[in-house]
Write a structure and sequence with these properties.
Number of helices: 13
Distance between the termini: 46 Å
CATH class of the largest domain: Alpha Beta
Protein name: Y-family DNA polymerase
Number of strands: 13
Low-confidence stretches: none
Number of domains: 3
Strand content: 15-25%
Organism: Spirosoma profusum
Order of helices and strands: EHEEHHEHEEHEHEHHHHEEHEEHEH
Family: Belongs to the DNA polymerase type-Y family.
Pfam families: DUF4113 (PF13438), IMS (PF00817), IMS_C (PF11799)
Mean pLDDT: 91
Strand order of the largest sheet: 5-6-1-7-8
CATH topology of the largest domain: Dna Ligase, domain 1
CATH superfamily of the largest domain: DNA polymerase, Y-family, little finger domain
CATH architecture of the largest domain: 2-Layer Sandwich
Radius of gyration: 24 Å
GO molecular function: damaged DNA binding; DNA-directed DNA polymerase activity
Helix content: 25-40%
Amino acid sequence: MYALIDANCFYCSVERSFNPALEGKPVIVLSNRDGCVVARSNEAKDLGINMGQPFFQLAELRKQHDIAVFSSNYALYGDTSARLMSLLTHFAEDVEVYSIDEAFLLVEGFECLYPSYQDLGEIIRAKIDQWLRIPVSIGFGPTKTLAKIANRLAKKTPEHNGVCVLDTPEKIDESLKNFPVNEIWGVGRQSARKLECFDIKTADQLRKVPIDWIRQMMTVNGVRLVYELQGHPCKLLEVGQKPKKSFCTEPGFHRVTTDLAMIEDALTAHLSRVCEKLRRQNSLAGCLTVYLKTNRYRKTATGLPDKQHNPSRTIVLPHPTNNVLDMIHYAVGALNEIYAPDYHYQKVGIMLTDLVSADYRETNLFTAGLDEKRLKLSNAVDKLNQRFGSNKLRLASQQHNPEWPMQFQYLSKRCTTRWSEILEAK
DNA sequence: TCTGGGGTCCTAGGACCC
DNA sequence: TCTGGGGTCCTAGGACCC
């Protein structure tokens, strides 16, 4: 049996857990640069606020209702998530951290310690509430996909009280008959539309399709999905961190721009950031991609859609590296090749791929000594920036124009990771 | 005025090899 | 008139996840 623990509107719940005055009020959390809504409390959902809705569209609603608004406080959410995951290891040996607010547990063999899975679920919920004040939903099932479905039912059906156990064929049959196919884990908009054409609308119908047919429709992913719905595990628990295979960063500008100098400036900053991620994982990148994106929503003065340009350029680096000084020349060169002056760009992105472990570093015969020095330099820069704040020490070419950086207007305190922002009790 | 920012996996098709 | 039969590797693009 697998259990899936999933926090209810996690970001909003974290804000609430450190600010009880928000209890019962509509709360929303915004994406980077306060662009879109990425988390909503139930009260906010009841007001009709949608996932991904642009924040500026809520101006009128905010006048009518007292909506608590927050920028994304990743330091706080990340730290709370780490506490949540560590708590879960008290209940099972094998814990897969699936996302910032979700974890799969392999609970087979532990049921003898508890009267039932239902009881185990309730105990976990109570413990998380006691220690973290975060509401969670818990679903149990013989495969990860069924646990996901159980979790969804636990969240949506109040009678379940946050825990749903699918442990008998009867319960599974009953649940799948009414479960919409488009809400299944792994069925996105495209597949749902295709299945709809063949009148497959519920998980139960999907479970009964011929395997060859589903392979044609949804490739091998569809095959795995159908087996999982039938109760045969295809997606196994993945414990331990797997090193990332790529890193990218593509924060948008505050407004669109045609200014190459400013784009170069942003690119330098993004590259520094993404190299830091690389070093944190002890990896080197063999390949670098620079891309530009225009704003697909933008209209010209005449109301016509603005012309779009989304070019990219990939460079194979002469040697795998995680040093910004080794890459900056290639990145800026690539940018200059793809940039065209008559487009309004919304963002410049950089992606590092072909990652290898830094333990396998291939040294260049002619620059080995220099590489060593540069490695020490980047490590020193990382440490200083960790201690004094990010970007305190940076390349001279970065941020000659400080217009583009992120803006977070509604940020709460980073009260679990910064002494200066610790909560005060009055 | 303002519309996020990350990731993974799979497939088809092209280029190349003998 | 008829033009083989295996392979591998790479890339772009699609679909999905949070």
